[in-house]
Amino acid sequence: MRTLVAVVIGLVAGFFAGIVIDQIIGVIGLLTTGDLGGFRYLPLVLAVVGAVVAVLIERRMQRGGTPRR
């Protein structure tokens, strides 16, 4: 259940982060070149990355969070 919650939170957070970063890139591209730039699938890619990272963090917390040497 905790893993499912971590996946959902990672998906949502990654999606919103992707939208924000895509808009920032678009505005910078518009100001510098006059053309709307951006990455079409950046929110979806970052949603998947966010879900994977959230699961990895959740698994590390279950192990006790001991750092590797």
TrEMBL record:
InterPro entries on file: DUF5957
Protein name stated in the entry: Uncharacterized protein
Organism of derivation: Micromonospora pallida
Transmembrane feature ranges: 7-32, 38-57
Source taxonomy: Bacteria, Bacillati, Actinomycetota, Actinomycetes, Micromonosporales
Keywords: Membrane, Transmembrane, Transmembrane helix
